[in-house]
Design a protein that fits this description.
Helices cover about 80% and strands about 0% of the residues. It is flat, with a radius of gyration of 12 Å. With about 70 residues, it is mainly α. Helix 2 runs antiparallel to helix 3 and helix 3 packs antiparallel against helix 4. The termini are far apart.
Length: about 70
């Protein structure tokens, strides 16, 4: 959670930096903020439609959300 402000500031300065966006998405997912992570991965896919990291991580976040609704 402490890393999020760093990523937020970095993304403001570098809004199209894919690595920073992916790292922020992963951090959000690790904090179980998967809806926000999915939004981040979608933003990456707008910039780079075939980004495998974003596609893979978005699938993981979707699965985590589905499982959370089944509980």
């Amino acid at each position: 959670q402490e890393a999020l402000p760093f990523f937020d500031e970095y993304i403001v300065l570098n809004p199209t930096n894919i690595v920073g966006l992916v790292d922020r998405g992963v951090t959000l997912s690790k904090l179980n903020r998967d809806y926000e992570a999915i939004e981040m991965y979608n933003k990456i896919l707008e910039l780079e439609p075939n980004n495998q990291d974003a596609l893979h991580n978005r699938d993981i976040s979707f699965k985590k959300l589905i499982l959370s609704f089944k509980k």
